[in-house]
Amino acid sequence: MLFPTATFAIFFMVVLPLSWLLMPRGERWRPFIIASSYVFYSAWDWRFVFLLAFSTVWNQVFAVAIHKRTEPRARKALLAAAIAGNLALLGYFKYYGFFVTSTHNLFSLVDLNVPLEVRSIVLPVGISFFTFMGISYVVDTYRGDFEPVGFGKFAAYLSFFPHLVAGPIVRPGELLPQFDSPRDPRYVDTSRAFFLIGTGLFMKVVIANYLAGSIVDQVFGAPNQHSSLEVLVGIYAYAVQIYADFFGYTNIAIGLALILGFRFPQNFDSPYAAVSIQDFWRRWHMTLSRWLRDYLYIPLGGNRGSRLFTYRNLMLTMLIGGLWHGAGWTFVVWGAIHGTALVAERWWRERPGFVERRWTPWRRSWHRFATFQVVCFAWIFFRADSFADAWDVIVRLFTAWGEPSPLVTGGVVAAIAVGIGSQYLPSRFPLAIMARFSRLPVPAQAAVLSLALLVTHAMGPEGVAPFIYFQF
Amino acid sequence: MATGVNTRRRRPRQRVAEGSRRLQPAGSAVVVTLVALLVSVLLNAPGLHKSATIQPEGWKRDLALAVTGPLQAVSDAFLIDRPRAALKEALGRSDDDEVDTAVAVPKPTPTEPVGNDEPTTTPITREKFSPQRKLRFWVAGDSLVVVPGESLLRAAGGSPVLDPVGPVDGRIASGLERPDVFNWFKHVRKQLREEKPRAVILMFGGNDDHDFMTGLPEGTEIGAFGSPSWEAEYRRRVGGIMDTITRARGYLVWIGLPITRDAEQTSRFDAINAIVHSEAEKRPGRVSYLDTYFYFAGDDGGYAQYLTNDEGRLVKMRADDGVHFERPAGDLIAREVLRRLNQRYDLTSWRP
């Protein structure tokens, strides 16, 4: 059940009023929202509902057990078991094939045949997201950040449909307290919710889908059929496509939660306006960056050791972050490029005699430009099906200048300009739009939204492609 | 009065959030959402009705048609659909909301016998192509053709003789059963007329294993999938597409459907493959059927998602859905297609 579909619209129009009607009675609201979320999830494949239920039971049982025990060794052992269970689940469904093929091919280099069975395993949608949220819950309980909540409340937290299939990765401390008391039905931030949903739909349905169909799929499908200009614009177009796709999804998710009375953390903050790779990761998929920092980088030791130790931790975090995105070596390379850039930036800043210079407009522009180029270079490996494909794209980027470039149309350039330009808009613009919208009478608000839906639907392609991040 | 508290409900004080935007009651959120959706449904009624029409057959489609049909009538009667039409026209996509189910295929001629097993024996000359006179080819079909098509285009990129007429023309959820979803009969004619490809690589059938067809001739009804009436109509369409291409001097390579994870689906695909294969055999030298079944079967003859390639590496051949191809599978198919193009045309004698 994709967000930009009539089926979801009908589903949401049933859930929205009922959720508010049941809100004052938590013991009724929770079963209702859990049931709704499971219906939403079962629309992909009803069998995976059991997987979600298993993950819920597993994490709740271990969180309660960790909380009850006081002996550090027992608590640590329980935590390790809980995390191992989560990773085993993720490993089986997401990485089994990758592990078997990599092992087989590694041993075949020395003419050894390893009898590993390959199986066809379907990747359950959203498994990477709810597994990470489950790990957050048990780790935060172990750290004593909070006490485990009741089973119903945890089940509602883990399955809450706005974030279920592609995030944002909401921390227990951010959402569970909101389940403690009913949301106040008198004060709902509707103008922000509608703004987020409207912009999210436009970015996904119009910008992302248009760029995918107009240039990205062709360029990455057969790079040697295209000129260098087309390849270059195709790479930039992919950068915008993946941003518009995921930013759009996240905006819709945050907006839907907001109409239901719940606040999710921000997930994007103009990432292509970043002045460094470190800055980029503070702005791109922010909830994943936080998760990797708090549950991977810091437990690895963070920057609490020598410089080399910090660099190692940075690199490991980005390599694992890359692998989280997909079971393939191209994703590992994507992570390695970001990890290398982060290490290089850190080394540069920490070298003796380094003095932070003032940010002039020119210096800021140059840093933004350079950062964007590094990010786009890494996107080549993220999008390509194999190293050979990525290499073809890179080679073509330099070897076919001057050839005709029919794919570089005004529409493509305009869509890229919208995708990147929107990240340079001062934050006061959307705030002013939301404030003005909030002062409109109800019929006028409905009219504005109707027109936005008209434009989005009319400009979008027939049918809606799945969100890119669903595969992760 | 006992407590002395005024129990009358007072209108809540307006609260504002960041940027001085007003917070609204949940009731108004529900009303705004509901009204906006209803109005936008009327504004977009033609598009929604088309979306309902092209859905897979079943109760969902019936329900969607029952709802969107009257909505479209109301939208049309009160001119509510005009803004959408104007917007579509401005975008140059006026045809988007039209549903064209015409199955325009040429009538079989005596040289292309239909219904008997005698193949045409017209001698075929092996035409020469060179870097100065390239072989133009077009790759089209349903979503299954996309990956092999891209492999083919990449392979063609290394050849000075091959000239693709454009990107892979893969249309998701389309096929020969449902011209309402995408009218291939019309599109093939248009492409042949405008692009004049001399070789056409097609792959259809992945969405055609159903009991439901649109664009049936007046008074024609089809039975269940695989029944004689279904087969006769599907055969007419397959043969029609083949004739449309071959009469435009195009050589057609038709990629057969692969084995899939679902055994029932595989047996339905087999039925479709049998029709395509037999129609191709009636047009020797002009149509070549490429059987992909055993390319993707494991050692036990069943479906295999991973297979060992020529270099002895274990590679993922099939997508997680158990139907579509991964890149190594596309490369395998592309290699065989190129071999057939080389057999049919002289692509090498231009070399000194």
Features:
heterodimer, A: 472 residues, mainly alpha, globular, B: 352 residues, alpha/beta, Rossmann fold, six-stranded parallel sheet, 10 strands
Provide the structure class of chain B.
Answer: alpha/beta
CATH classification class of the largest domain in chain B? Alpha Beta
What spatial form of chain B do the alpha-carbon principal axes imply?
Answer: globular
Per the CATH scheme, the topology name of the largest domain in chain B is: Rossmann fold
Regarding quaternary structure, what we see is heterodimer
CATH superfamily of the largest domain in chain B: SGNH hydrolase
- Strand percent estimate of chain B: 5-15%
Strand proportion of chain A, as a percent range, falls in under 5%
Tell me the helix content of chain B: 25-40%
Low-confidence stretches of chain B: 1-5, 112-119
Q: Using the CA coordinates, give the radius of gyration of chain A.
A: 23 Å
Number of helices of chain A: 19
Number of helices of chain B: 9
Average of the residue pLDDT scores of chain A? 91
Summing up helix and strand content along with how strands pair, one would put the structural category of chain A as mainly alpha
The major pleated sheet of chain B works out as: 6 strands, parallel
**Largest interface, counted by CB within 8 Å of the partner chain's CB:** A-B, 66 and 68 residues
**Main sheet specs of chain A:** none
Structure commentary:
The complex is a heterodimer of chains A (472) and B (352). With 472 residues, chain A is mainly alpha-helical. Chain A has two domains: 175 residues, no CATH class; 195 residues, no CATH class. Chain A is built from 19 helices and no strands. In chain A, helix 10 packs across helix 16. The longest helix of chain A is centred in the first third of the chain and has 37 residues. The model of chain A has no long low-confidence stretch (mean pLDDT 91). With 352 residues, chain B is an alpha/beta fold. Chain B has two domains: 67 residues, no CATH class; 210 residues, 3-Layer(aba) Sandwich (Rossmann fold), CATH 3.40.50.1110. In chain B, helix 5 crosses helix 9 and helix 6 packs parallel to helix 7. The longest helix of chain B has 20 residues. Classes of the chains: A mainly alpha (472), B alpha/beta (352). At the A-B interface, helix 1, helix 4, helix 9, helix 18 and helix 19 of A face strand 2, helix 1, helix 2, helix 4 and helix 5 of B.
